[in-house]
Design brief:
Blueprint lengths: L2 E5 L3 E2 L5 E8 L8 E6 L6 E6 L6 E3 L7 E6 L4 E6 L8 E7 L4 E2 L3 E5 L2
Parallel strand pairs: 2-11
Antiparallel strand pairs: 1-3, 3-8, 4-5, 4-9, 5-6, 7-8, 9-10, 9-11
Amino acid sequence: QVRLVESGGALVQPGGSLRLSCAASGFIFSSYLMKWYRQAPGKERELVATINSNGAWSNYADSVKGRFTVSRDNAKNTLYLQMNSLKPEDTAVYYCTAPALGYWGQGTQVTVFS
């Protein structure tokens, strides 16, 4: 059974940092490209970052480029999103997904407030 469980969301002040984790199970994690999305209240889900199966390649939305870093530890079956210089507009529920499998996690809330 495929399972993706996000964690690490929190309340943080502007300029702060958070690291989100996505624990994967039920599939061969190291074989799959992974993505982080986010969805703010009243807005469509937005692609934040993509990383290929071995972590050698990644891509980012313009809105987070230079502030967020996606990484993965295939030995631990875990995907990460390091978020620095957080802004109020980063407030959203963050989701990880394995697009080829069509599974999503339940999401973790990030709230940036002053």
